[in-house]
Design a protein that fits this description.
Glutaredoxin, single chain, 15% strand, alpha+beta, 5 helices
């Protein structure tokens, strides 16, 4: 199976899915990364704030940062080649690049009482709560 590498912009935690105002794009992409793992894809994910050496050691990533700076992030590589730059791709786009079935890429999104999409997360820092004000939450601390 293929390997995908994700070079994220600087975030407070490894996925960015923490804190009081979580970007829905990061929640979606975190779910997509989990789905890729379930499909047998190896995913390596690096956050510029937490793993700057990984950015410096990869020639392709260094070149992208030199050319466009942080605007090139997130940078998604498949087998060492840039396939997305500057935004997180949809699951269907990832599936196509990795030769995965389009049917397996369909995602179920539960809908809340008022028709709002509901995203559930266990928090990025090992707590069931991503709210730093909640006792027991270690998110971004």
């Amino acid at each position: 199976m293929k390997t995908i590498q994700v070079y994220d912009p600087p975030m407070c935690c490894s996925t960015g899915v923490c804190g009081p105002a979580v970007d829905p794009k990061l929640v979606r992409f975190a779910a997509d990364v989990k789905w890729l793992g379930e499909q047998g894809v190896t995913v390596e994910r690096y956050n510029l704030a937490q793993a700057p050496i990984a950015f410096a050691e990869n020639e392709v990533v260094r070149a992208a940062l030199t050319a466009k700076g942080e605007a090139s992030l997130p940078l998604i590589l498949v087998e060492g080649k840039v396939v997305f730059s500057g935004s997180y791709p949809p699951r269907e786009g990832l599936a196509g690049l990795l030769g995965l079935s389009a049917e397996s890429a369909v995602r179920f999104v539960p809908v809340g009482k008022e028709g709002n999409r509901v995203a559930k997360s266990s928090g990025c820092c090992g707590s069931s709560s991503a709210d730093p004000a909640t006792p027991g939450s270690r998110c971004c601390s």
